[in-house]
Automatic annotation (TrEMBL):
<dbReference type="InterPro" id="IPR010951">
    <property type="entry name" value="CM_bact"/>
</dbReference>
<protein>
    <submittedName>
        <fullName>Putative chorismate mutase</fullName>
    </submittedName>
</protein>
<dbReference type="GO" id="GO:0009697">
    <property type="term" value="P:salicylic acid biosynthetic process"/>
</dbReference>
<dbReference type="InterPro" id="IPR036979">
    <property type="entry name" value="CM_dom_sf"/>
</dbReference>
<keyword id="KW-0413">Isomerase</keyword>
<dbReference type="InterPro" id="IPR051331">
    <property type="entry name" value="Chorismate_mutase-related"/>
</dbReference>
<dbReference type="GO" id="GO:0046417">
    <property type="term" value="P:chorismate metabolic process"/>
</dbReference>
<feature type="domain" description="Chorismate mutase">
    <location>
        <begin position="5"/>
        <end position="96"/>
    </location>
</feature>
<dbReference type="InterPro" id="IPR002701">
    <property type="entry name" value="CM_II_prokaryot"/>
</dbReference>
<dbReference type="GO" id="GO:0004106">
    <property type="term" value="F:chorismate mutase activity"/>
</dbReference>
<dbReference type="Pfam" id="PF01817">
    <property type="entry name" value="CM_2"/>
</dbReference>
<dbReference type="InterPro" id="IPR036263">
    <property type="entry name" value="Chorismate_II_sf"/>
</dbReference>
Length: 100
């Protein structure tokens, strides 16, 4: 049985690009969560609720449009945003509990 061939250079290049994109996504998500943590503190100080359905609806519409323009499945983009927003609301509730 022969040893597996080394992956072609193009495959290695694409994998390196994917790794770089994944790293950028992690850092961008971290920055987003730093911003939403500040929002959570401001909401708690102002007595605002952790969730804002109107804002969430605006975000969904904006993200779906961005996804379409980027040739990304809008339903996938919406699911991704819903996951992120769910986590943000969880953080905001925790902040409100701590500060309230």
């Amino acid at each position: 049985m022969s040893a597996p061939a080394d992956p072609p250079a193009e495959l290695l290049d694409l994998r390196a690009s994917i790794d770089n994109i994944d790293a950028a996504l992690v850092y961008l998500l971290a920055e987003r969560f730093r911003c939403t943590q500040r929002v959570g503190h401001l909401k708690a100080q102002q007595g605002l609720p952790p969730a804002d359905p109107d804002r969430e609806a605006q975000q969904i519409a904006r993200l779906r449009a961005l996804a379409e323009s980027a040739d990304l499945d809008p339903a996938f983009a919406e699911k991704f945003l819903a996951f992120v927003v769910e986590e943000v609301i969880r953080h905001h509730r925790a902040i409100a509990d701590q500060e309230g």
